[in-house]
Amino acid sequence: MTKITVLAGGVGGARFTRGLLQELANTDAGSSVTVIVNTGDDMWLDGLRICPDLDTVMYTLGGGINEEQGWGRPDESRRTSTEIAAYGRGWPWFTLGDLDLATHIVRTDLLRSGSTLSEATEFLCRRWQPGVTLLPMSDQPVETHVRLAAAVDEHAAGDLIHFEEWWVRYRAHVEVTEFVQIGLETSTAAPGVLEAIRDADLVILPPSNPVVSVGTILAVPGIREALRATRARVVGVSPIIGGSAVRGMADHCLNVIGVETSAAAVGLHYGSRGSGGVSGTGGVSGTGGVGGVLDAWLVDETDAAAVAELEAGGIRSAAVPLWMRDVSSTAAIAREVLAISALV
Amino acid sequence: MTKITVLAGGVGGARFTRGLLQELANTDAGSSVTVIVNTGDDMWLDGLRICPDLDTVMYTLGGGINEEQGWGRPDESRRTSTEIAAYGRGWPWFTLGDLDLATHIVRTDLLRSGSTLSEATEFLCRRWQPGVTLLPMSDQPVETHVRLAAAVDEHAAGDLIHFEEWWVRYRAHVEVTEFVQIGLETSTAAPGVLEAIRDADLVILPPSNPVVSVGTILAVPGIREALRATRARVVGVSPIIGGSAVRGMADHCLNVIGVETSAAAVGLHYGSRGSGGVSGTGGVSGTGGVGGVLDAWLVDETDAAAVAELEAGGIRSAAVPLWMRDVSSTAAIAREVLAISALV
């Protein structure tokens, strides 16, 4: 009856969790998994509340994901998006598929009617049956923005733009000076989040973006403290293999907070739980650390040289194959997480 | 430079106005047309504000209507609607096409951001260029409901249900005892509405539903009085031909307010402007009359016997072909409206 809690962003966290569920189905059918999902990428678009990471996890675990692109639904049309653009509305660089759109419409309707994001998420999951308890990190809106280093298009130097605009429109290829997370400091963890960390046997940081996904979750007041205090083992999986991001553009985010793009640097950025506060700055700002959060950190077999450095930093480490090529190879990674958690 | 104002519901009013515009293009290119549209059928569905009559008029005049069904856009998919239904939301009997959906999303976004319905309508019309000034009858929400005579499905006898549910789900085939228009008494005419009636040379009541379309517009405080006071001629076109509704189910609505389904009865229900208040009960309740609103009333050639009855009631009348088979035959009806308006 192992209780496992995963702190996830979008695609990486979703795919890792799918592998974890397969592994558990084979080895520990009585286990239960809670996934706490980053909501810092959430946004309003055309009056609809979009929650990219929640939906990616829900669709991936519920069998409704577009496997090729990693987000959205398969075989979607852009007809409604195109119509919205014909009115001069929306963001031309961010289109909503016609099937995915229904999720946003239903969620927005629920939120406008007074439901919390937790309640709306639970409602949506009744359809998708993801096989986990899916929790937003917070019910309060937290929106990650980036501050532009230089003028670009209609934006001036120093302007804040939504993370999704930087990420999707500019593919993170314009320089930014900092992340600004509107609403973060006054947010509180959603119902069940702190309990899921406290009562877990194992907490996993999957290969999600360490800055704007896991870093954002860690920065919600109370969550880092819960990770430091839990009796659970805390094991992370490096999203960096051989000096570059497995997927996405985590390197651009790491650059912004001054962390090297390497498996060792990211593990040490999260820091050791045993460090008593001297290491561990892992978070979106890179300076908010109040002690590390990791017991163990898996790196890819090609990063075996990082193991000694991590262990010198108080973090148990092992080098194992970390490419999530398919569900089966991802289940093998989850098996390594379970294995190392038994050693710490 | 004739100024013409039309009081319209959905399909009938939209198609009539399209014919009117063709007639004016040929004979009076300097004229201007304002269409005041019923908003009593408006509703919230899945958190989106739906304005069936405004959209039907806008699409019809802007070249975006589904000609066959008379509402919505051509070649739409129901994929998003089907997804919403998969969540157990929406009304299974009322689906939103994927193209039409964009209009509702943009309008709702504008309304939620503080725009009035007039402003949102003006914004949407920038795309569609309907060739008229399109005005909602009111910026305040007015929603027509019907009171059920007997229990049906999940509703009890005496329950109020939204007009669209009665109309679309039950095809008006369950008995109702009255129309109840929530918000009507405290509503005010939208900006420009009373002026468009006051300053017109000609006001036209097209073959729209006399109870829930034109009747609702007339019941907005101030509109009937404006029609009584305007220097314009007021000419109506019968939506009843040979004892039945040209389109839709106006007979069911007329039954509810105790008016016979005949061209003469509907004309007399609107009443003569010259009657000084003794005739004219035209409105949704059938009892709200404070004097009639018509100078003239066109009936179909098959209803020629009604002409004498109407003229005895103080309403100039003529029997002419009233079937709107296509734009050209509809333009001919508009020509008859212009002709009779010159005689009163």
TrEMBL record, chains A, B:
Keywords carried by this UniProt record: Magnesium, Transferase
Protein name as annotated: 2-phospho-L-lactate transferase
GO molecular function: transferase activity
InterPro entries for the chain: CofD, CofD-like_dom_sf, FbiA/CofD
Keyword Cell wall biogenesis/degradation assigned: no
This protein's record includes keyword Transferase: yes
